[in-house]
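#struct-queue
[09:14] JT: dropping the first one here, sequence first, then the structure tokens:
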Amino acid sequence: MRTNVPLSSRYSYHAVFSDVCKTRFNHLVTRLLLSVSLALGLILALSGAPGREKMVKKLVLWPAKTLMCYLAVLLVVVTRKNYLHVNSPGYSSIVTQIYGQLCSLKFGVYLGIYCVSNICIAAAARDAIYGPSLRSQHLFAYRLTNWALVPALYVVQHVVFDLDKLMFQYGSQHQHPQRYIGSKLKNMLTKCLVLTFGTIFISPLCTVYLTPKSSTMSFGLLWKSAVAAMLSYTLWDFVNLAFSAYLSIGCLHKGKPISSLSSTPMETLATGLASKKPFTKLTAFQELSFRATSPDMQLRLPIYHTRYKNVYIWPSILKECLATINETNVSVAVFMKGLEHQEETYRKTKPLGKSEFLEDGFTQEGLFGNDFVITTSSQSRIPGTPEPHDSHLTHRIKVKNNNVFAKNHSLQFSSPFQFSNAANNRILTHQTTITNVFCDCVKKIKEAFISFFFPVQNADSTPQLSSFELWRISKKMQAEKLAPLPVCHAECAVSLMALLIKSLKEDPKGAVVSSVGEVLKILERSVGSLGAFAEWNDSQVRKDLSVPDVITILYDLSINAFLEVVLNYNELLNDVYLDDDVVKLSKWVLEICNE
């Protein structure tokens, strides 16, 4: 099969989108943050005690204070740019997330950058908040609070909760930066107040245990330190909020899709959908969804009829959409399969009586002379559940008799430690029986520790959960681990649904309409694999009923997209070959819809 028309690198979606991101970042740094620094520098310059200095001298300090404030915010925003990401970090519980985020190089870099930033802020605001001079016994407490404690508190919450990640709403392809900042100001001030109160409580304790006896923390110094901390927290959080607002504007540049900046927009968009860069890929799928759902038909005509008669545009788009959805489906299916395998392993390791035998398998001693019944599990499969890939998942063997060539269980030693046999002992050694027992005990404990804390993959390459993940595993975080870019999956489903529905009137005899069978098939697979996770309930799983996990959201979206396509294509589906699972799921969703 042919691929897309070869494109020059300057027409790739990643190159065009990178230029757009640079423009947005420059607007943030040279316009918004510079204006904020100028205003803050002027306020701090004029906030000195009245009557002590003339107004002219205060205005002379304005450029210096502005420069210090601008340097402080510039350090933060440049570091944030280097750690920019849109995918989830991949932790399954809050314990592993705290450990992984704090024990990282990023935490050390951020701590150093924010310490330098707060030194600049404290230097600019020292005269306005602390007055012209500080007493010698207050100097160490002042430095400890402003140079170490305040940056550490902010960096801990910023890194632990992964606030570097850009957040995008499902189905929203564009957001205005000023509106975004305005909607988040209340939450920003609330968080800064909480951090300030934390500083008020922690600062005296640090002063008591860390400062020398000659240094003290008075109530007045504590109050001034709280004001300085609130200033730093507010400035930092505003900078991070503004960065998120400008870098998550979306797929539009001056009201037009980003690919329209290229002379071959559809070919450029196809390179973005296939990009290995998560941010570029996400934005490309946002644009595809924008084109698919827009009331302007002109945005979809290049997909139906390309400028250069490239008939491989739609197949390329469809291929990337199916691959993206299938990637999430496979990830979730493999996880649920591994979870089921672990549960079966735990059941098999339970002690058995003399007449109890393994159900779903047989041991090597009972390989011959057994009566067994083969049952097909596919009959009990609910609509939408994906077919098993391996034969041992389809046919389940139940052992009826296992007495042939069986050992005499009454003669076996029932201890959990099977000590070394004398025939297998080392030759020409002076090891005693006690030494052998001790070595075997250590070996068993070591194997149990490694298998419990650092499990390897199963025989079928399905990953196991570690003990840290099994302990209070968060279903919401596990869902983000399995679907690190859920927005791409959501935009794929929305795009395919909208294009199929709108093409019935706009291009009824085109290639998009003829792809309805493939789209329904992949949506049926999504309903099956994602539905199993959405219904997963376990006593060890910590669930937040107020906020559904991303896989449950994708599951609901897949069902809705499947239903909309079925309802709109209704009679046309009679002339399309559909898999049995698609037909079963169609009947199921239609029955639910009729109820």
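[09:21] JT: and here's the second one, same format:
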Amino acid sequence: MTVLQIDLETYSSVDLKTCGVYRYVESPDFEILLFGFAYGDDPVLVIDLTAFEDIPDRVLRDLTDPSVIKTAYNANFERTCISKQYGIECDPSQWRCTSVWALALGLPGYLDGVAEVLKLDVQKDAKGKNLIKYFSVPCKPSKANGQRTRNYPHHDPEKWEEYKSYNRQDVVVEREVRRKLERFPVPAHEWALWALDQRINDQGVRLDPILFRQAIACDEQYEARLMQEAKEITGLENPNSLTQLKEWLLERGLDTPDGLSKDYMPQLLDAAPDDETRRVLELRQELSKTSVDKYNAMNRSMCADERARGLLQFCGANRTWRWAGRLIQVQNLPKNVFTDLAMAREILKSGDFELVEMLFGAPPFVLSQLIRTAFIPSEGCRFIVSDFSAIEARVIAWLADEGWVLEVFRGHGKIYEATASNMFGVPFETIVKGHANYELRARGKIATLACGFQGGENALAVMDSKHEINPDEYPRLVKQWRDANPNIRKLWYAAENAAVTAVRDKTTVKLAHGVQYRYEAGVLFADLPSGRSLAYVNPRIKPEPKFNKEGLVFDGMDQVKKKWMSHRTYGGRLVENLVQAIARDCLAESMVRVDAEGYRIAMHVHDEVVLDVPIGIGSLEHVTTVMGKPIRWAPGLPMRAAGFECDFYMKD
């Protein structure tokens, strides 16, 4: 099959990073500047569209020819830009994304990082960032360029030639990356899933602009009110200045050597010498809560048709291939804890901020509660929201053959009560509201969430965020949970032994239910029952003195530090990767099924799908039935889905 490698250089006055490519191409000044491409092993050609050069007719035809595979690094960008510039549909099923391919193999998500890790003979041109900044984004008027806000090729012909060389080199590097990765192909069903993902991102989800703009206005008004009060009490020009405020507090007799972070605020409030000082600290604390980042992201990224697009990154969590959030970050939306969401959002939209505060509380809390509700169905539609019940607990029990847990999920499904019953040796039927044993449910829930991946006392402390358990009980709870789940405990050590053996002996070791660890060409693969594999690059065995054993180390991206580095792993973490990956595959299977049934997926969050369904068509019962069907490659895994219908997105 013919492969057409493509790389573009473009211009738009809209910021690509903060607004996304769909909003980027809507700018009236958007244009493709350079179109670099190569067929197979042919020389790379760069078409300079600013010089009125034409893309060859063959290329234009092949952009819509299903027999020609189009490929790019971050193909979503090229697809979207080409569709806009030429008014054609770039069917994602005809494209392949080298960035996704790299992420699937545990490699960095950026091109120069991949080229470096793969030790390619060709590398990305380091001058690129400066050239992009010069030609592809607006510039500030200066003495050097007068009043112009954009640089054109004729402003620096030498740099422009360098930009064309940079574009050509990118095609060369992307092609070399693709060649290097061809040894480890992505399964065909995953490319089909990526195509579905692209259609979901292309379609996007509708936003309520009145709501999010009023939320921003409400926050501004509330913050101004707090600042004014702080100024009146302190007499400071800027009470938000840490330096100014610390000096003022010191004058009042309150020393703050450790700063004014939220961790120290309770002690500082207790130590406040008078009511005015205490009130200023309270104002500081309240100002730190005022955040409308997600509302601002909605404002930046919303397209002309009031839809947000490109919110989901396929294989964004590259250790497991789970999706990651982009722009508005729908994967970490606050939960709803009050019930009158409809009333609160309507009052907010009306602009009566005083009534909002009077009825529902301080604006920071109310606005965080309403973030989900800014996502609304298309005209004439309603949302059907459906998710899996306790999917990770089901998957780990299935993988470990923890029989009693599987029976719970095949029956009543009350895993927290059943866990508490098993841990504490009390009758299941006594863990109900009104009975003294009901307090054990919280312990069962926290232990279930904290201990499944070899978590100990620290994991319990993290999950026990409401401080429902005396920390002195943590060690005993960990032991009780592990004693109640012996097969899951065995799975941790079996997974670690299998992975270590596979690397040490450069072999394949079977684990359970179609999972096996396989060493090949400097990569440890965890083959999954769905037919895809997790990848651990450059695995090696290193002593682990703390536990007096051999341990597994591999190279990968640190999701927090955003850098390529070594990672040490262990049985619980390996099992966590397996469970989250299998749970992701369950969601993927269900997404394909509901799509095949004609339901339109507006977005999905963790183990939940949000469907944009015309009123009078489809039903919640049908959706949950489709979601809960047995999965072919996971026989015996008890699946169950639940859901609800709504006129705006929320957490039921």
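[09:30] RK: nice, looked through the second one.
[09:31] RK: The longest strand covers residues 533-544.
[09:31] JT: good to know. The mean pLDDT is 94.
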